[in-house]
Amino acid sequence: MFAWWPQLVDAFNQHAVTPLLQGLGLLEHFGDPRDVAEALIIAAVQVLIIGAIFRPLESLAPAERWSDRRLTRIDRTYTLIMLFGLNPLFAYLVLTPLARLAGVAGGEAQGDAGLLGLLPWLAGYPWLKFALYYLLFDFTYYWMHRAQHWLPWWWALHSLHHSQRQMGCWCNDRGSYVDGLLQSVVLGAFGVVIGVEPDEFALLMFAGELVQCYSHTNVRFGFGRVFERVFVDPKFHRLHHMVVDELRPNLHNCNFGQVLSVWDQLFGTARYGIAPRPTGVLDPMVDIDNERGLVAMQWGAVRRFWGALWSRAGWRPGDVGFGPDYVPYPSGHDRVTGQPPDR
Fold it and tell me: What pLDDT is attached to residue 340?
């Protein structure tokens, strides 16, 4: 399907990755070094596009102007760590051997496994097959993302991503690493079950991550009235990150799509035509992430997660805030003060 891609991966592996892993004595611990080479190429391309294209756009046409970009600096660190170390591609590469042992996936020749097992004629139409893979991938992401907001114990982790008051192009990979692990397992398992080959899965991840980085970009323009109904753009996704409106408490529960906005329209979660609003959260126990370094941010998210996981409130679907004991409580006006109602 992409004849040039394997050639690029092979060249980078032969001249860089394999010699480096051999020199470090790690070659036998990384499985196929081509997989490592492929993931690193994808990460490097994404960083280049974010820095050379998306970031300049923020200066040309910002949705909101910041006098101090201090809060955005840590997001660059998050991006580099996530892309070069915690990409969901790695979870897929770990899960694939296990799935093959269980008879779910079928190696290079997928046989009766996955989508090709149901529709074998798709093998002759690689572009159509890839498009169907992506539809299923994006649909999976949409429902996973809704669960991240719906389940208090998962929101305890995912809220770190939403705590950013200055949402910009580096913000996509800002998040809890436990949350990232859960996402990786869900998306990696999806790839295994439907029979996506590693190179195809890499391109699925590349497309999804790149669009997400663009949708987080601090720009005031979108894709226009027609294409915004199909694809997620910065105007659409900025509303997903808006601060809770106390007068319209459900307004922020919208626009969960990753690349395709059609899922939000089909399931009634799409919002359009609202002027840009401040981003972040009102809950002081989450907003404090903005005053912390990377390690402290991760620890704070884990404490919220632990408090939610072992409480009944942590399993009751709905919006929550977190008390000083890190136990969630139903959200409301108390999110402003951080003081939970009587429980």
Answer: 45
Which region, left, alpha or beta, applies to residue 56 given φ > 0 means left and ψ of -120 to 50 means alpha?
alpha
> What amino acid occupies position 190?
F
Residue-wise pLDDT for 140-198, tens only, equals 999 999 999 999 999 999 999 999 999 999 999 999 999 988 988 888 888 888 888 77
Residue 328: phi and psi, rounded to 5, are -75, 155
Domain boundaries, the chain: 4-266
What are residue 159's phi and psi, to 5 degrees? -60, -25
Helix/strand number for the chain, H first, E second: 17, 2
Whether 194 contacts 313, CB under 8 Å: no
| Rounded CA separation 303/276 (Å) | 32
pTM: 0.85
Q: Give 66-106 pLDDT, tens digit per residue.
A: 888 888 999 999 998 887 766 655 655 566 665 655 555 44
User: Position 216: which residue type?
Assistant: H
Residue ranges of alpha helices (H) inside 217-278 are 224-227, 234-240, 262-266
Angle, in degrees to the nearest 10, between helices 152-162 and 177-193: 110
Contact (CB, 8 A) for 89 and 39: yes
CA-to-CA distance for 30 and 24, rounded, in angstroms? Answer: 12
Query: Which of 174, 148, 167, 336 shows the shortest CA–CA distance to 241?
Result: 167
Closest CA to 287 of 272, 297, 276: 297
Query: Residue 113 carries which DSSP code?
Result: S
**For 61, phi and psi rounded to 5 degrees?**
-145, 70
